[in-house]
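Subject: complex prediction, re-run

Hi both,

The earlier run crashed halfway through, so I resubmitted it with identical inputs.
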Amino acid sequence: MAVEFVKQDYTGKIREVTIGAGDKAVKVGGANSYPFYLFEGALPNPPRIAWEVWDAETDQWPEACKEPFADVLTDPPAWAKKLVEKHGAEMIALKLVSIDPNGKNADAKSAVETVKKVLAAVSVPVLVFGVNSVEKDAEVLRQVAEACEGRNLVLGPVQEQNHKALGAGAIGFKHTVLASTPIDVNLAKQLNTLLGNLGVKEDKLLMDPTTGGLGYGIEYTYSVMERDRMAALVQQDEKMQQPLVCNLAPEVWKTKEAKLSAQDDPKMGEAKTRGITLEAMTATLLLLAGADVLVMRHPEAVAKIKTLIKELSA
Amino acid sequence: MKLKILPDNITIEVAAGMNLLDALSQVQIALDNSCGGEGICGQCRVQIREGGIEAEQGPRQSNEEYEQGWRQACLATLSADVAIFIPEDSRLEREVIYQRIAPSGQYLTDAQIARLNPGWQFDPPLKKYFVELPIPTLKDNISDLDRLLRELRKHHGLRKVSVDFPILPNLPELLRQDHFRVTATVAEVKGEEGSQSPRRRPKLIRVEPGDTRSRHYSFAVDIGTTTISGQILDLNKKKPLATQTQYNAQVRHGADVISRIVYAGSRPDGLATLQRLVVETINHVLAEAVKKSKIQLDNISHLSAAGNTTMTHLLLGLNPRWLRMQPYTPAMNQAPPVRAKDLGIKVGPWAHLYTFPSVASYVGGDIVAGVLAAGIYKRSPLTLYIDIGTNGEIVLGNRDWMLTASCSAGPAFEGGGIKHGMHAGPGAIERFTLDRRTGEARVATIGHHPALGLCGSGMINTAAELLRAGVIDPNGKVNLHCGSPLVREGEDGPEVVIAPAGQTASGQDITLTDLDLDNLLRAKAAMYAGYHTLLQHVGLNFEAVQEVLIAGAFGNYLDIENAITIGLLPDLDRNRFKFIGNGSLLGARLVSLSNALLDDAEHAARLMTNVELSDNPIFMDQYMAALFLPHTDQKLFPGIARRIQENRGESAAPGVHP
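This time it finished cleanly. Structure:
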């Protein structure tokens, strides 16, 4: 007699959210089992990678990250184009670093220009990130929303403090919201509830659970994401059934372990391999925890993760 | 003159000539009257069922209605006993009036106590016995003491009576003052340390000349961190004669127990100072209560006190230092009875003070007294006992087991940390209603004085109403886009005007700010997370709770529906909630009246297991979940979530201004 394997009884399913518009639009989410549990459920849309493009301050990047993009590092549209054409990027994560009130403090107008240029250069979906400044993000991303109606951008991070301004902008101009909360199931749910009350539709809502890089408390993110997924899939928690976006690249590449050169500390080994490995390992963990979109930076790390996703979802 | 209210079936005593609307507000029954009691809107309709009221026909009333006995409460003046019926649609908020076991300032009756604590019997731990001793003769010349003990045995069956030494020096004179006619006060005390029998034994503590049996009193006191309440009890008539409350004089050295502990250790005389201050307050309360009840201080035979662990330590002069340091060890959980005079309390040397046993550093005798009074340790239904205050105390259990927890809710419920917060005194806004059609706000204050500020219960009522109306969001933030004229950007961020300058005592707007709401949210979240954590510890859910007992002075004024709306109380069948008033004082009163309850207090304390919340991961998680109105998990508040949605109706999607 054949052995009957015990299967988890799932009562929920992750919602499908379409990012971007037109031919290149991408669907994420849709899983009805734990990550890659293909023996228990289906994974209609394997996790995707959104490639980072910064509009400023790339000079502070570690050498390993600058190297593949040296020719485009100060030219976001060209950079995005290169990512799509040369690296096969399916999504771009445009970071409006220039607007940081503690940095260049560029105004909304110039940021809108940057976004428009990037959108003109590529037709893949674009996730537009502010700088985690409640007021500045609200001001800039609202104008981005207005200027880019029809492209179904992902706008984030949307926090509790600015959810009304950004949520309203996203609803009005038909974009998708990335709701960001600091590593907590309840806070995530609360923000989803508030956005729902505001009128943000479930197929226009993604969640950013907040992550650290490997070695920087990632186990905390891991267990919170695990609980997010349990709530969504087996605890009938409808407010938690949104796809997860993990913005890991800046977290990994800002750590000492990723930046330190081999000369500064020879026993840490070669810097480039070290950084790429850290990024790939962080991404692996987040995939296993349930990430639907990974925001990544280095082409070699991305290549490794793509292979992994392919193998895990085969 | 009596006013009977149907269908609530409440009868209250009212003064002739009183306006019916005002009379009803005394028992917290508020009627719709959007015209402000001017007789115009006709919303405050009531029907006379028996007796009569003087009331003219309202401008919108039909003759037929008037003939059927319908009257407008605002136009009605009470002139004779009357029974009125108040239909649901006349009531503000359509709420059910819950039976309040202990309306503030009143004493629970014996019948009510018996309902709470079945089997409770009047049997005070001290009794007075009158004896007429045979005059000594040469044939019968045993010692004075032996003579007294012999007669006590002969006439009152008291055997093996021990003697408190201080009675001896004056005994010969006392016996002879009224020709060997004396009254002996005998206490039932526990056997000596290590004795096999737990049975109590009689101990002679006082001898008075003549028959003083009719003058036999006890003093019960609740030693709160903020206030001290004392009650004189007549041990013959088994009832309280007077209650007095005063601020604890220790307050000047810190508002909470932690700062008192710190003060006690911060200087050589710190502990002695705090001990002296609490005794001063007790003496003052005692003196006032004695005066009010028209008795002699000299006739106090006994004292009982309930306080939290820190307060008990400070009263007894024990160093509280280790209470606040891990692993949080008290000096003792149960102190032996102490001669009150030795502590500085101004009573006779015979009077002993009984203090309630504690369970742990942060679960004190006050909560044990509450459990005792509420009879939880005797009943089988699963009970949740809640004492809401700066330090919220929670007990979950029944006669078989009890879990306790103490959670720091902060001072918001007492008006602390709130911009326009205040204690529940005259002028405090208790009720707030928002007219859904006109958007107009109305407040009711304690004593109908011009508004001074918001008290804790007023804040709960206000927040609930604002939430229902969509003026505040479920995250406890003022919704600036809700369209209400009451919201604005204030100097401390977004705020809601609760009472405009014209209605306030100060001539300035009374507002509720985002920061206030944040404090309220944290306070209620700490309480709710506390209940939830205890339930999770035993693998139960809220539905399993059959009775919720609400204690604390604050509890008397709490509006259940509103407290549930903001998630301070669980969304359970409203019939499961009961108020018991000051549970700690009630417990202290009951042990003065019943010997058996003294033993029960220790038994109850032993049944209680403390759950430490400060480092409890379940609590932290539940706390985060409860920082939402009413709660992140709306399934826990099905009725409330539905009601809020219905109330908001079409206006549910505000603020979409692309």
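Residues 215 and 295 of chain B are 8 Å apart (CA to CA).

- K.
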